[in-house]
Amino acid sequence: MVAIGLVVMAGIRQMCRVGPGALSTSARRTTAAPPACRSADLLPFGVPARRAGAGALAPVFRRQFSGSAAVAHLPGNKGGGAAMPGSPTPHPASSFLLTDRSCAAIRRDFVEFFTSRPGPLAHQHLPSSSLVPAGDHTLMFTNAGMVQFKDSFTGAAPAPAPPAVVTVQKCVRAGGKHNDLDQVGYTPRHHTFFEMLGNFSFGAYGKREAIEMAWEYLTRRLGLPLNRLVVTVYEGDPESLALWHDHVGVPRDRILVKGAAENWWSLGDGPGPCGPCTEIFWDLQNGAPPLSDDRLLEVWNLVFMEFARKAGCSADKGAPLHRLPVMCVDTGMGLERIASVLQGAPSNYETDAFAPIIGAARRLSEQAGAASLLAATPNPNHNHYPDPNPLAAPPAIDGSASEPWFRIVADHLRAAIFLIGDRVQPSNVRRGYVLRRLLRRAMCAGMQVGLPNSFLSGELFDVVLKELPSELYPEVFAESENIRAAIAREEEGFGSNLARGMVRLGRELESARSAGGNQLAANRVFDLYHSTGLPIDISAAVAASSGLQVDQEA
User: Which stretch of DSSP H or E encloses residue 272?
Assistant: First the structure.
């Protein structure tokens, strides 16, 4: 394939997995080679806008990049706010900045922005689909906003009418291939449950309109400074490059051209729709060059579904792709992530999506006088904690080494509530097993910070529900008491085993330290899991807090 150019910034993909950009849409990509492009298909950098069908707005946008781009109301920015131009004529709804930057306000505003678009760009708001994908046996859980539209993208099912849609989709990545479970609590942005804001087109509009609306929303509606935004494009997609540079006016040094590993999207390696994507990143520093990979936080991914891989073909075998009859648009922006940008939070856990839950858990712990007794809690699944890179390390809200335990409690309880709300029950198989594991991990984490019995189904349960919008998730509120009862049964059933397991683990740790070793035998950890149900990764984390390692592979 003839590349249209190289702007190399090695490591963005790895950063998105475990650094500031964790929980990114990179989990949804594949490195499968996209269709070959002839050299004649590729336009050079700096191609005139008219050749790519773009307008003549670039000079207007460039003036904004060259001038003051700071917005006073954003945390960490000083100076007056510049008037942000639209693309090409801003919708009246973009004439004001969103001043309430709570998660509740962001959800409402995102939906309103797209439903109020004029003419054919007016989106219909569809509800979130279930976390259990309907009729899809390839996924453990709904893990992206586009899952409910897979068949519509490929033409196997009718497209929604009208063919422009906006959603706030509940997602879980805690089982199967897309599994962020082991990272939760130890990175700034990994979660098992999260909400994905997305707008979709099934022939209603294409790349130009998708890029224009995304840029308008971020810069005019949210007021993000232009010099803090960076975009990436796929090396075989010159149209997107021209739109960003010549039409929108993003400076060339803030457009990164990437390969298939970063900017070619598909839902895993199996059959289904796929295509190039362009991503918008938030610069965690001040926007000054030179850019480095540990500075960029992905906030929005725009996927252009132009192709599909047929059933029975796998990406690792170079499966042939066929062009879809209509190019579709699939975008996704993590609610918790954009909230961290707008609220000036170093991590998602310090936004209002998590802070009330963690604050309530901390109060319960402090009442018991237990939090101060904890030692440092490194993540046994990483080589170090905290990360020596200050941009990647999640600073604790109060500087406490117990912070990962509180984060695990908050994250896992949110996931459990939504899973049970979608009729998943704790069990020992498939989705039920994942749910049971989440609850047991949360209980173990709570015990480490001295939380009282039944803390998941008690006060913390009420705090989670208080922060949720009943109009978006009516199933959770309709089943709230049944959800609470299911969690309480797990707490009661596992509570005694957990207490017994933790006592035995303490004895094993003391014995290992007395012997002068630096490891807790893997067979002892497995025996604890087999006899008491104590999760192996939790045992390893507790052991690590005592300076002992566990060979989890063994």
Answer: strand 272-283
Provide the token pair at 508: 């094993």
Give the residue carrying structure tokens 């540079």.
Answer: 245
Please name the residues in contact with 56: beta carbons below 8 A apart, sequence gap of 6 or more: 49
Helix boundaries (H) for 195-265 = 207-216, 238-242, 260-263
The predicted-structure confidence for 322-342, as pLDDT tens digits, reads as follows 898 899 999 999 999 999 999
The whole-angstrom distance between residue 404's C-alpha and the CA centroid of its chain comes to: 18
Crossing angle for the helix pair 355-368 and 403-421, to the nearest 10 degrees: 120
Q: How many CB atoms lie within 10 A of CB 323?
A: 11
Determine whether 373 is exposed, middle or buried from the number of CB atoms within 10 Å of its CB (0-12, 13-18, 19+).
exposed
Q: What's the N-to-C CA distance of the chain in angstroms?
A: 43
HSE (side-chain half, CA atoms, 13 Å) at 389: 13
CA–CA distance, 446 with 406 (Å, rounded to integer): 7
Mean pLDDT of 156-183: 87
Q: Tell me how far apart the alpha carbons of residues 145 and 307 are, in angstroms, rounded to a whole number.
A: 18
Question: Which stretches does DSSP call E strand in 56-157?
Answer: 124-125
Res. 10 pLDDT band, cuts 50 70 90 = very low
- The pLDDT score that the predictor gives to residue 79 is 30
Compute the residue count for the chain.
Answer: 554
Please answer whether residues 343 and 174 qualify as being in contact, where contact means their C-beta atoms are separated by less than 8 angstroms.
no
CA atoms within 13 A on the CB side of 117: 28
CB 146 within 8 A of CB 106: no
**pLDDT tens by residue, 209-239:** 999 999 999 999 999 999 999 999 999 999 9
Residue 445 sits at φ, ψ, to 5 deg, of -65, -40
Longest CA pairwise span in the chain (Å):
75
Q: Across 35-49, 371-385, 390-404, which has the greatest mean pLDDT?
A: 390-404
Q: What's 452's DSSP letter? A: P
- d(Cα 199, Cα 115) in Å, to the nearest integer? 10
User: Strand 272-283 and strand 255-258: pairing?
Assistant: unpaired
Q: Which amino acid is at 197?
A: L
Angle formed by the axes of helices 522-532 and 536-545, to 10°? 130
CA nearest neighbour of 188 among 360, 46, 13, 386:
386
- φ, ψ of residue 271 to 5 degrees: the values are -70, 160
Tokens coding 350: 């310090």
Using CA atoms, how far apart are residues 462 and 514, in angstroms rounded to an integer? Answer: 44
Q: Which of 130, 166, 164, 159 is nearest to 147 (CA)?
A: 130
Please give the Cα distance from 110 to 197 (Å, whole number): 7
